[in-house]
Amino acid sequence: MEGRRVRRFGRWRSNQTLLPVRVNRLSNAVSCWYCDCKSSILNEPLFRFGRRYSRFLKAWFSMGVGFSLAVLFAVTMILLYEIVQILCLYYGNTQMSNVMNKYLFGFSSTISGLTISVADIGYLCMSSFISVSVHELGHALAAASEGIQMEYIAVFLAVLFPGALLAFNHELLQALSKVSALQIYCAGIWHNAVLCAVCAWALFLQPFILYPFYIHDEGPMVLEVSPTSPLAGHLSPGDVIISLDDFRINNAQEWSQIIDVLTEHSYQTFQNHSLLENSMKSSSGKGYCIPYSLVEEGKRVSLEGNRTCPDELSAFITIPCSDQAMVDDDNLEVNHQRDGGVFHCFYDKDVLKLEKCGDGWGRLHSNRSSCFCSKEGTCFLPLLSTGVAWVKITYSSPSPLQCLHLGRTRVIEDNISKENPCVKTFVFVGDAISIKHSVLLTSYQPRWSAKFGAHLPYVLERLLMFTFHVSMILALLNSLPVYFLDGEAISEVVSHYFRILSPRRRRTILQYFLFGGTVASIIMFVRIFLVLF
């Protein structure tokens, strides 16, 4: 009886068919926990290609052996680190898990609730198909270069986990040298690493490739606005974000970074501090020079009583500072005692037209307090509670017909303080993090006025990013010294180089190594899951 070796991400099983043979009929397996779909259409083309360019492919996959062994050693050290932490009962340090979340999975440990859209599921499926296909193609070509033809390729679903497998002749594989066998086993990991490099290079070159058709890094453009977004009534597809609190925004990444900083400052309140002091921390020192005439017309509300302004009005309080000209208290009737005083209610649209004061505008990390205004006015800060931010959003809208003729670059470079129908400003008051992902932005703007093709750069960018992460995960998973993955076959071949040990002892050490690697891998991924969610 002859055997057939079937690859299932590194797992091989025996059967009763010799290879190479031409397979005419394939029976698909179906059960309550496992089903697959087999195909032999690519057998002959891949085998002919592998034999024709065997010299080049052998040199190519020889580089993959060194890379895969280095990755296997690296992930083994990470697993040993996890085991040491467990044996020492040391759970406080989650730095390794945070690094894995951020750079491997693309998530941050500060996420309080992970959500994924339907589009992201589509990107994930497409990137998984590409990564798995490239992985299995590597094994097939490496085997073909050694004169071994695969019998079939199959896509399977085990319980809820999808995967792919290749079928090879077991005895032909056993007859190969150890170096040739390593080339076949390491080919999938090597191809996934190369795919990661290709995706990273494509992401870097994308702005240059799309330059004739798109403008890059000159303001993020709105693609979609969620109906539940607090910005739904202000922004619409095609609008270009110019600034947040007078911070110039060049791309979608800067949008997220500035919002993170604004959110952090909105939570910087301290116990035993007055409402004024906490409001200065939350607003980051962003004030407006409000003239006394507008102050007298504004509604004054006592801090000791009703602390809310009527609808469409926002609360403001003066800044007590030394570099401002002294103001007559009889004119303002404002008391800056720690637990008393009044605040004023103004319309946002009236305040936004006024001059700015305070160090928060354009200097979120400043510790100085400068609130100089002219003698006709005084500096007021928005009165904000913990976690509430005052965010001024400036954007350009292509809605007016004259804006389409001016062009996007011309609009962005205009002085936004002038009366410009293409530039608009509004204030968002609330939790800044709520607007971070409620608006879909792209760093690319089409050079034509039509909306056709506006989503293309975003789709390409997301697909490349998803493929990069999925391919990296697939390479690292198959490098782990665990059962049923490529790491098991690689470890088995490497163990044969330790000839000072008897075959029985080598097998025993290999089983302990694989068992420990499997347990440590499960624990590591459980920790990553707990940190992530």
Any chance you could write out the topology, listing elements then pairs?
Layout: E1 4-7, E2 34-39, H1 43-52, H2 54-87, H3 95-104, H4 118-145, E3 152-158, E4 161-169, H5 170-175, H6 178-209, E5 214-225, E6 240-244, E7 247-248, H7 252-266, H8 275-282, E8 287-291, H9 292-297, E9 299-302, E10 313-318, H10 329-332, E11 342-347, H11 348-352, E12 356-357, E13 377-382, E14 389-396, H12 401-406, H13 408-413, E15 423-430, E16 439-446, H14 456-479, H15 486-495, H16 503-532
Antiparallel strand pairs: 1-4, 2-3, 3-4, 5-16, 6-7, 6-14, 8-12, 8-13, 9-11, 10-11, 10-13, 14-15
Helix pairs in contact: 1-4, 2-4, 2-6, 2-16, 3-16, 4-6, 4-14, 6-14, 6-15, 15-16
Explain this structure:
This protein has 533 residues and is α+β, with helices and mostly antiparallel strands. The protein has 16 helices and 16 strands. It has helices at 43-52, 54-87, 95-104, 118-145, 170-175, 178-209, 252-266, 275-282, 292-297, 329-332, 348-352, 401-406, 408-413, 456-479, 486-495, 503-532; strands at residues 4-7, 34-39, 152-158, 161-169, 214-225, 240-244, 247-248, 287-291, 299-302, 313-318, 342-347, 356-357, 377-382, 389-396, 423-430, 439-446. The chain has a 6-stranded antiparallel β-sheet with strand order 9-11-10-13-8-12. It has a 4-stranded antiparallel β-sheet with strand order 1-4-3-2. It has a 4-stranded antiparallel β-sheet with strand order 7-6-14-15. A hairpin with a 2-residue loop joins strand 3 (152-158) and strand 4. The longest helix is centred in the N-terminal third of the chain and has 34 residues, at 54-87. The model is unreliable at 1-23, 107-114, 322-340, 364-369 and 406-418 (pLDDT under 50). Keywords: Hydrolase, Membrane, Protease, Transmembrane, Transmembrane helix. GO terms for molecular function: peptidase activity. Residues 129-512 form the Peptidase M50 domain.
